[in-house]
Structure formats: C-alpha cells, structure tokens
Specification:
Length: 430
C-alpha cells in the first residue's frame, strides 16, 4: 500500500487516503522499531505488515461516534490486522503519528516545489539569454530612467529564484523531523531508541526536544518560505502586467487561438494569468500569518493549530505548485515587442541621458549644483516643448561654452549604457 504514494503529485498529497497512508507508514515504522527492541514478536510484526490497511469510509463512520480521527483510524487498522493490532500505537500519542506523518508529506511537497523552481529558473535563463541584446528603457517610479537590456529582467528573476531554492531547501530540512516521544515529549513509555530507529527508517531526523507536538516554528518557516516565493512570483507577474498595458505594450502574456478576453469588447487581450498569480499570492501570504500565529500554544500543546494547518498547509503548497507552473508557461510563451521598446524609449526625448550630461559638466569644472540646474532647466523645457533633449543642450549657450557638439553627441550613444552587460551575465550565469 505504501509504495502507491511515493510519487504523488501535489494535489494527491493532501487527500484523506494519502494522510492515512502516511499515518500507517509511521505506525509500521514504530512497530518495526519495537520489534528490533524485542518488544513485538517477529510473527506478530509479519502479520501486522501483511494485513495492515484502512478503509476511508469506515474511518469516517467510526469517527462519527468516537469524535477522534486517530482513534477512528487505529480502529479501522485493527479490523484489518486482528489480534496482533494490540502492538500498534504502543506507547505513542496521536501527535507522534500526526506530526511525523506531516513531516513526510511536507518533505514530498518540498521536493515537488524544488523541481518547480528549477523548471521555472531554466525558462527564465533561456529568456534572459534570448533578450540579452534587446535594448529597452529602465524605469524607476514608473518613469523613464536609463537604458538597459530586456534580458536583465529575466536574469534578475532567475537570481531571485536561486535564493528561493536555497530557502526551500532550508525549509525542507527544517520540517523533516519526526517525533515519537509520547504524551509530553518525555519518552515516558516509548524509549528514545524507538524514535531514533523509526525516524531512521522514515528518513527523518528525531526532534531533539518536543512537547506533545513538534514545535510550530518549523512549519512557520515552511509557510513563510512559500509566502516569499509567492511574493517573487507576484513581482514577476506585476511587471508583465505593467508591460502589457496598451500605453506600453512591450510584452504580453500568451494569447491562444480561440481565446477571448472580454464578453463585451472583442479586442481585449488581458493579463489574466498574471492577475491570477497576483491574487493567489495574497492567499499564500495570509496563510503564512496564520502559521506564525500557530507557534504559540498553551503549555505542552493545545489543538488550536490543528484546524488551521489542515487548511493553510495543503492550500499553500497546492497554490505555489500551481503558480510556479502557470508562470513558467507564461514566461516561456511571452510575446515580446522590441520595436515598441525602442518606440517607448524615444517618448522621453533622450532625457534618460541627463545623468551623463550632469557628470560631464562637473568634469569640466562646474559645481554639481550649477551643473544640475543647467541640465534640469533643459530637461524641463524638453518635457514641456516635446523636443529632443540633445537639441535643447546644443541650443543652450551656457552648455556649449563648456562642451562641444561632438562631446555632447558621444554622451547620447546608447552603447555607453550597455558596456557592462557581459559582466553582469557572467556574474549571474557563470
């Protein structure tokens, strides 16, 4: 039965049958550990391993009476095993099973998300290299700043996903702990050796010290890591949404044959995928806040965290898996319009060269304050008159007394802005 669940996809991880399968996996590991310690007869262990199973409908039926999911599960298992079921769950408390099995599920979820991050990173790298020579305007505050290459946007996102990969691996290590130390974590019945043997069989590290539960700061780290990843995905989605605006239209989401953007306006091609990712990021972030609130429990445990985790952990894991895959599809099929990038650059009349002019004037001996006033005066006139900034400078006698036409022309060569792009790419991609 256990082997069926080793290669599950994200959605499958969180259904009832998978939960009970993981509970059974932990119970069997504990039984094997007890047998190694000489507390379960060999023939009984063989019977348990051969017959152990459960029935989801039967568990639901029993739970209606007992009002306790683990007891209902154990009752169903005992109905499959028979008399030797008396050795199952020996010396353990419910949270030993629930928390240890949750670690198994979280580890699988982390593995899926790590693969998703790697897949998205590869697509980002492909696009970064593809658009390494594509010149566009950089913006700060939404206003033209200086020229750059479009590929740098993907390179920056790629680098951020590398950091998310580190965070996800750290989170995976943090949640990969098991706990079989009993009612308040003191090994009052089951000895420490049992926990060590069972955790080794499950591929987990024993929780060094626990109450009745594994401490929830571990799960909060997992959830906040998902929230950071969601923030990164929203960041990318927001940029694409801005680039797709009609007034910009430098890039846009894929728009498939037969797709329709509006019930009223047939011309619409809307960034619905990126908007979807933006909205889902809000859910993942709010779930992380709930996980942080789960850290503080009464004394050696209460149950206030349990109902929360049954919602936030599956939901956030499934959402991040979905968001990473959806964004990968958007990035790989992104429509890019280099001609619009050049057109948009020209809309600020060459004003993006203002810093170079400012520095050139100071290198000619002007104070920074005097140079700034001279450049800003011409820049504001360029905006107002909608004329080229370079022409304004060439017509300003205060400027031409200090710099020649040739010197001004050189400052407006866009190649000056791109001379260190190779350095950046080498530093990012090696």
């Amino acid at each position: 039965m256990i082997e069926r669940y080793t290669r599950a996809q994200m959605g499958q991880l969180w259904d009832l049958e998978m939960r009970y399968a993981k509970w059974l996996e932990v119970e069997l590991a504990a039984c094997e550990a007890w047998a190694e310690l000489g507390k379960i007869p060999t023939d009984a262990l063989i019977t348990i391993k051969e017959k152990a199973g459960f029935d989801v409908k039967r568990i639901d039926e029993i739970e209606l009476t007992v009002k306790h999911d683990v007891i209902a599960f154990l009752t169903s298992v005992s109905e499959h095993v028979g008399a030797d079921s008396r050795y199952i769950h020996m010396g353990l408390t419910s949270s030993d099973i629930v928390d240890t099995s949750l670690a198994l599920l979280l580890r699988q979820a982390c593995s899926i998300i790590i693969k998703d991050i790697n897949d998205l990173s590869e697509v980002l790298k492909i696009q970064a290299l593809k658009y390494k020579e594509t010149i566009c305007i950089g913006r700060s505050h939404g206003v033209h700043a200086e020229p750059m290459v479009f590929g740098l946007k993907f390179a920056i996102w790629h680098e951020e996903m590398k950091r998310n990969l580190v965070r996800m691996n750290d989170a995976m290590e943090m949640v990969s702990v098991g706990k079989l130390s009993g009612a308040v974590g003191t090994f009052s019945v089951a000895p420490p050796e049992l926990e060590e043997i069972a955790c080794r069989k499950l591929g987990l590290i024993p929780e060094p010290v626990a109450t009745q539960v594994v401490q929830r700061d571990r799960h909060a780290q997992f959830m906040t890591t998902l929230a950071i990843i969601a923030g990164s995905l929203e960041k990318i989605a927001t940029e694409i949404r801005h680039l797709q605006r009609t007034e910009v239209r430098e890039a846009e989401e894929p728009f498939s044959v037969g797709q329709k953007g509006s019930s009223a306006m047939p011309h619409k091609r809307n960034p619905v995928g990126c908007e979807n990712i933006t909205g889902l990021a809000r859910i993942v972030r709010s779930n992380a806040m709930a996980a942080l609130e789960n850290i503080a429990l009464w004394h050696e445990r209460d149950i206030s965290h349990s109902s929360v985790e049954r919602v936030i952990i599956p939901d956030s894991a499934i959402l991040i898996d979905y968001m990473l895959n959806r964004l990968k599809g958007i990035i790989s099929g992104l429509h890019v319009y280099p001609e619009n990038m050049l057109f948009n650059m020209d809309r600020s009349f060459g004003l993006y060269n203002s810093q170079k002019v400012l520095i050139a004037l100071t290198q000619k001996g002007l104070s920074r304050e005097a140079a700034y006033e001279m450049v800003q005066r011409n820049a504001m006139k360029s905006w107002a008159d909608r004329e080229q900034f370079k022409g304004m400078l060439l017509g300003d006698k205060d400027v031409t007394r200090i710099m020649s036409q040739e010197e001004i022309e050189v400052l407006f060569d866009v190649k000056n802005y791109l001379r260190n792009i190779d350095f950046l790419y080498k530093r990012i991609f090696g």
